[in-house]
C-alpha cells in the first residue's frame, strides 16, 4: 500500500512570525498532498512530552518540550503516495542550515530547534502521530472532482 499518512506541525516559531499562512499555502499547492485534518492547538506539557517521548533521553528534550509549549502551533494530517518521504523531502533537513533551497525549513527555519515544521519519520510513526492529535473518524476526504464540477 503506497498511500501513507504523515503528521505535519507548523511549530510555534513559524506561527509567532506569522508564517503559518505561507507555509500552509506551500502544502496546499503540493501536487500529491491531501490535507485530511488541520487544527490550531497550544500544547500543554503532558501533550508535548508524550508526543516527543522517543527523545526523552536526549540532552535537548527539555528545550524541545518547552519550545513546543511556548505558543500555538498548527497540526495537520497529510495523506499521499509515499507521503512520509515526500513530506520529509518537502520540509528539508532538521537543521535549516543544511536544508535544500526551496524547502520549508530552508525558507522559514532559523535553528535546529526552531526549525518551523515537524514531519513524521516513518509510515508507522506517521499513523501513530496522526492518531495522537486526531480521531481518525474526524478526518475529511475532500472529493475535488465534486467540488470542481
Ligand atoms: P522534529 O522533526 O520536530 O523532531 C525532533 C526535534 O528535536 C527536531 O525536529 C528538532 O527541532 C529537535 N532537535 C533535534 N536536535 C536538537 C538540538 N540539538 N537542540 C534542540 N532541538 C533539537
Average pLDDT rating: 95
Return the string of H and E elements: EHHEHHEHHEHH
Q: What is the overall shape?
A: globular
What's the tally of helices?
8
CATH-defined fold name: Alpha-Beta Plaits
The assigned structural class equals: alpha+beta
Task: Determine the N-to-C terminus distance.
Answer: 29 Å
Write down the Rg: 15 Å
Largest sheet, spatial ordering of strands = 2-3-1-4
- The percentage of residues in β strands lies in 15-25%
Instruction: Name the assembly state.
Output: single chain
Ions, cofactors and other ligands present here are: adenosine-3',5'-cyclic-monophosphate
Query: How many strands?
Result: 4
Largest sheet: 4 strands, antiparallel
Question: Any overview of this molecule?
Answer:
The model has no long low-confidence stretch (mean pLDDT 95). The chain has 149 residues and is of the alpha+beta class. It has a four-stranded antiparallel beta sheet with strand order 2-3-1-4. It starts with a strand and ends with a helix. The protein has helices spanning 12-16, 20-29, 45-51, 61-68, 83-91, 104-108, 123-133, 144-148, and strands at 3-10, 34-41, 73-81, 117-119. 40% of the residues lie in helices and 19% in strands. It has a single domain (3-147), classed as Alpha-Beta Plaits (2-Layer Sandwich). The chain has eight helices and four strands. The radius of gyration is 15 Å and the shape is globular. The protein binds adenosine-3',5'-cyclic-monophosphate. The site of adenosine-3',5'-cyclic-monophosphate (CMP) has 10 residues, from α4 and β4.
Amino acid at each position: 500500500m503506497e498511500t501513507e499518512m504523515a503528521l505535519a506541525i507548523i511549530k510555534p516559531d513559524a506561527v509567532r512570525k506569522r508564517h503559518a499562512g505561507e507555509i500552509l499555502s506551500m502544502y496546499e499547492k503540493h501536487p500529491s498532498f491531501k490535507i485530511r485534518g488541520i487544527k490550531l492547538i497550544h500544547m500543554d506539557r503532558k501533550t508535548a512530552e508524550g508526543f516527543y517521548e522517543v527523545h526523552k533521553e536526549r540532552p535537548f528534550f527539555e528545550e524541545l518540550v518547552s519550545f513546543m509549549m511556548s505558543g500555538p502551533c498548527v497540526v495537520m494530517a497529510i495523506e499521499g503516495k509515499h507521503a512520509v518521504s515526500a513530506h520529509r523531502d518537502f520540509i528539508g533537513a532538521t537543521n535549516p542550515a543544511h536544508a535544500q533551497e526551496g524547502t520549508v525549513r530552508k525558507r522559514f527555519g532559523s535553528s535546529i530547534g526552531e526549525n518551523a515544521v515537524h514531519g513524521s519519520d516513518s509510515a508507522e510513526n506517521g499513523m501513530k502521530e496522526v492518531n495522537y492529535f486526531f480521531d481518525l473518524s474526524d478526518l475529511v476526504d475532500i472529493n475535488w472532482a465534486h467540488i470542481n464540477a
